[in-house]
Design a protein that fits this description.
The complex is a heterodimer of chains A (345) and B (360).
Chain A (H helix, E strand, L loop, with lengths): L5 H24 L7 H12 L9 H34 L12 H15 L7 H26 L1 E2 L2 E2 L1 H25 L4 H8 L9 H20 L1 H7 L3 H6 L4 H23 L5 H13 L3 H25 L8 H21 L1
Antiparallel strand pairs in A: 1-2
Helix pairs in contact in A: 1-3, 1-13, 2-3, 3-8, 3-11, 3-12, 3-13, 4-5, 4-6, 4-11, 5-6, 5-11, 8-11, 12-13, 13-14
Chain B lengths: L5 H17 L19 E5 L5 E5 L5 E3 L2 H9 L6 E4 L13 E2 L8 H6 L4 E5 L5 H9 L4 E4 L4 H14 L3 H22 L5 E6 L13 H8 L2 E3 L12 H7 L3 E6 L9 H6 L7 H4 L3 E5 L9 H12 L11 H8 L4 H5 L8 H8 L1 H4 L3
Parallel strand pairs in B: 3-4, 3-6, 4-5, 6-7, 8-9, 8-10, 10-11
Antiparallel strand pairs in B: 1-2
The chains are: A mainly alpha (345), B alpha/beta (360).
């Protein structure tokens, strides 16, 4: 492992930021309604100079009020899922771990749906009511990763294939419960079914963005403080313990933070799969597996991947839209198989 | 979907729905114009899910997010004001030429914005609340309908006509629908209702619940669904159907996709042979208008009533079609002539129906 220099980390992040910038421009430019680059530049400059009220054209409305919030949501969701995937992979010492594959996304979805069901029966202030769904998603995610962790343990050590199987089985079990709930309860089920596939088409209110942003920074920050320990954990839990890593504490911090990231992402966008799997792999190939660089580059890479996938979801069958989860699964599932085969070879 | 926003919206919708239900009858909830002081640029109406909607006056540009609403707009003669509709809006055929904004569940907000609508029409059973909320955040007014019975389809169409500024057209449609239904009731009222299974989908077998407008349309046609479910689209066990043995199977022809299977095809499906309705060829196909809460549903109801109760239409022939039926021997032979409704048939029906006539 090459020694980390601030210079190199900044350079890598800068490279990814430039790519993200171009993907965002692409996402702003393309959509169901064609927008010229000139109109795009003019409207963006107006927003930058705080003159958004001067935008009168519906192109401005489309860019500023429809595409931009959606892109922002894609950035936060992609970064969250990717950081969560990176953390699970390090902690479970399994390169195939991902919130979706491990069933954590399904757990978060179930938690969110249970919160939706419980919400009308509780007498709570509206401010707290808005937080109930992400809270439910977080608790669902945390409970699932705990269950999967214990399912994957054999004689005190995590067994890689048992863990993956445990995750897949847990995901299918939770999906069955969700199906059951959706069949027994009436209400806005069509929306739920669409959301379950992973969907960014409806942006939440502004206050939710603040909540998401702060939650993401706090959780990612917490995980980053353990980046060095995660590097040592790659050698094995016992080995890391001998090297002075407080393994139970790291495990607790990372599981809680990664569950929070997954819960936040799922509560606004449903289960977008494989982002937490592909992106960390690509970043490891590009920049190495030092978690001090891997975590920030994975966050940026996740943002790039989801914004790009969502642009495809918006445009390939325009004016109708695909669920972004379908796009990431089409790209991600074959890659998962490839990685699995390579590991077994 | 963003479910963070859901609780707030839903509780608001619940309160509003309660307020809506507390009105004695849906017709009492008629739009009450409250012209704002000074500028009469818009008026506030309460839609059928209880939201207060600011409707710009006059409504010049309409986007419809449901096939039924598109049909209603045409029936009201407002097709020139319809600037956009969904990929599934295929009736009347002219509706297919309108600018498309995507599907009902996943429309493109961008396309809707670019069409500058004064009002977007949605229906609760088809569209998502997230779409409505996103439109509200973009400053676009949307009006929601939510009919659950044939009577509510009539009042809903009439109320919508008022909102769109053509109350006379609405009243004409409503009275036409009411007269035709009353006429139908006169004919079939003495006859016992047929026990039917309305087949939405064959594999898996999906039927309709008792609180849907389709179940009510069956009742109006002198039929009663054997399925007694609270759900809108229940999946039904074939065993249960075999136990209840419906007298007739009812299919809706869809000219967009596959035509319903013929009796011969049905008999090849595993288990279907044990249904008496299949072995006796008791089988009715009506236009897909029955699936759409729009004025044309009356045509589908009349058609179904003719197929289920041919005797009620034999005595006093009034037009060619009924004369034709009189000449045909009533019974299975005559029924099987309905096995294949050609895809054009529903449209022909629509042209001769009051719904189409009102458009002129």
């Amino acid at each position: 492992m090459r020694p980390l220099t601030l210079h190199r980390l900044l350079l890598q992040c800068l490279l990814l930021l430039v790519i993200l910038f171009f993907v965002v421009i692409l996402a702003l430019k393309f959509g169901a309604v064609p927008v010229s680059l000139y109109a795009l530049g003019r409207d963006l400059l107006r927003v930058l100079f705080g003159q958004s009220s001067g935008i009168s054209s519906d192109y401005g409305l489309i860019i500023v009020n429809i595409r931009l919030p959606r892109i922002l949501l894609g950035i936060i969701v992609g970064a969250s899922l990717s950081v969560a995937g990176t953390s699970f992979q390090a902690l479970l010492r399994n390169p195939l771990a991902d919130p979706y594959v491990l069933g954590v996304s399904s757990g978060a979805a179930l938690g969110a749906i249970l919160a939706l069901i419980a919400e009308p029966h509780l007498t709570i202030s509206p401010v707290f009511a808005a937080l109930l769904t992400p809270l439910g998603a977080f608790l669902g995610a945390a409970a699932t990763i705990t269950a999967v962790y214990f399912l994957g343990r054999r004689q005190g050590q995590i067994d890689s294939s048992t863990l993956l199987l445990g995750g897949v089985i847990t995901a299918s079990f939770l999906s069955a419960i969700i199906m059951f709930l959706m069949n027994t309860l009436t209400g806005n089920l069509r929306g739920l079914a669409y959301w379950l596939m992973g969907d960014l088409s409806t942006s939440p209110q502004k206050s939710v963005y603040w909540f998401l942003g702060i939650g993401f920074l706090a959780a990612t920050g917490a995980i980053y403080t353990t980046a060095g320990d995660l590097n040592l954990l790659l050698a094995g839990e016992k080995e890391a313990m001998h090297l002075g890593v407080d393994v139970p504490r790291v495990r607790l911090v990372v599981y809680i933070a990664a569950s929070l990231l997954t819960g936040l992402a799922v509560s606004v966008s449903g289960a977008i799969g494989y982002v937490g799997l592909i992106v960390p792999h690509a970043m490891r190939l590009l920049f190495g597996s030092d978690h001090r660089t891997l975590l920030p580059t994975a966050a940026l890479g996740g943002a790039i991947a989801v914004v790009f996938a969502d642009t495809l979801a918006r445009t390939v069958v325009a004016p109708a839209e695909l669920a972004v989860g379908a796009v990431t699964a089409i790209a991600g599932a074959p890659l998962f198989i490839y990685l699995l085969r390579r590991r077994m070879a | 979907m963003n479910i963070l926003a859901c609780p707030r919206l839903r509780s608001a919708a619940c309160t509003a729905l309660a307020a809506f239900l507390s009105c004695a009858a849906p017709s009492r909830a008629q739009s009450a114009p409250t012209v704002s002081s000074g500028a009469p640029a818009f008026r506030e109406v309460t839609d059928e899910v209880g939201r207060n909607v600011r409707v710009p006056q006059p409504v010049r540009r309409i986007v419809s997010l449901a096939p039924s609403l598109t049909e209603t707009i045409y029936a009201l003669g407002l097709q020139d004001r319809l600037v956009g509709d969904t990929d599934y809006c295929d009736y009347p055929p002219d509706a297919e030429k309108k600018a498309k904004v995507g599907g009902a569940i996943n429309p493109s907000l961008e396309r809707i914005v670019a069409l500058h609508p004064d009002l977007v029409l949605v229906t609760k059973s088809l569209n998502r609340t997230e779409t409505v909320r996103a439109l509200a955040e973009l400053g676009i007014s949307s009006y929601a309908t939510d009919p659950h019975t044939v009577d509510e389809i009539i009042t809903s169409s009439e109320k919508l006509a008022g909102v769109l500024g053509v109350p006379e057209a609405g009243a004409a449609i409503a009275s036409d629908m009411q007269h035709r239904l009353a006429d139908l009731q006169q004919r079939i009222a003495p006859l016992p209702p047929k026990r039917v299974l309305f087949v939405v989908w064959t594999q898996p077998l999906i039927s309709v619940g008792k609180d849907t407008f389709i179940a009510d349309a069956l009742r109006q046609a002198g039929a009663v669904s054997i399925v007694d479910s609270e759900q809108s689209w229940p999946q039904v066990s074939l065993e249960e159907v075999a136990r209840l043995q419906p007298e007739f199977l009812v299919f809706a022809a869809s000219h967009a996709e596959t035509t319903p299977p013929t009796v011969e095809v049905l008999a090849t499906f595993p288990g279907w042979r044990i249904l008496d309705a299949v072995s006796n060829r008791r089988y009715a196909v009506i236009s897909e208008a029955v699936n759409r809460p729009a004025p044309r549903i009356v045509t589908a109801i009349e058609d179904l009533a003719r197929q289920l109760h041919p005797d009620a239409f034999v005595e006093k022939p009034e037009n060619g079609r009924q004369k034709l039926e009189k000449e045909n021997p009533a019974g299975n032979q005559q029924l099987s002539s309905h096995d294949y409704l050609s895809p054009r048939d529903p449209q022909l029906d629509g042209k001769t129906s009051g719904g189409g006539a009102c458009a002129r």
